[in-house]
Amino acid sequence: MDHVLESPPSVASPGHSPVARGIATASISLGYMSMLLFWWTPFSSLLATVGLSLGIFSLARGVRGLHGENFAFAGTCLCAASLSITITLNQALRYLQWEQW
User: Fold this and answer.
1) Entry pTM
2) Which residues are within 8 A (CB) of 52 and not within 5 positions of it... i.e. 6 or more apart?
3) Residues 30-53: pLDDT tens digits?
């Protein structure tokens, strides 16, 4: 059996453009960065929120990787987890330190 080489997907498709894939990958990067900086309260929440919005935008457009990877879904899940962890820890630490809710 001969292996048929497939040509790369066309750049004209919105799901396969390099910029669209970069936006989906940015949501993963922002999610990891917000998890690394979870103690930095306003900055980590801002990173996770921007990553979540980019991931949802990429999900709505149906962006996939070159081989069909769903980077947008991974970035959205990562940012949502990071945002929920950051908000929960922030509120719990405020409660334990007798601050205002």
Assistant:
1) 0.77
2) 27, 76, 79, 80, 83
3) 999 999 998 888 899 999 999 999
